[in-house]
Amino acid sequence: MRTDSNCIFCKIVAGEIPCVKLYEDELTMAFMDINPGNEGHTLVIPKEHWEDVHAIPSDLIGSTVKTVKKIATAVEETLNPDGINLVQANGKGAAQSVFHFHMHILPRRMDDELKMNWGLRPGDMDAIKEVCERIKKNL
Ligand code: DGP
What we know:
The protein is of the alpha+beta class and 139 residues long. Helices cover 29% and strands 18% of the residues.
């Protein structure tokens, strides 16, 4: 499998660093964002290391989006947000900070005033684990 020993998400896939895991299948994985923009903020990645939308093969982006739909449905059922943004950054100019292709599932509230580049603030790990368990029940 294509991997990069310096990549934080490859380390998560390999189990070398912990994550709050929501779901995995043969090709993809979903885990809670450590810097959540809102409650339930989840990341979906291909297990293989591909830097961005330009690098990732079409069939693998397809598998990743299939997982995104599954997770978004569970997030919708669990949290009943006012909306969900799917966000995916490519390149520093787009505020990509981890160079392993990933899609953000970002639940939204009418009054959250979240901006596109929402900033990276550490989340409350107990709250992140708790919402992960709640979403899991709807997978
Ligand atoms: P982006 O800025 O679009 O490349 O998003 C990268 C996201 O990854 C950002 O929201 C924070 C998150 N993140 C960074 N390091 C870790 C980590 O070690 N664990 C988890 N769960 N999320 C991480």
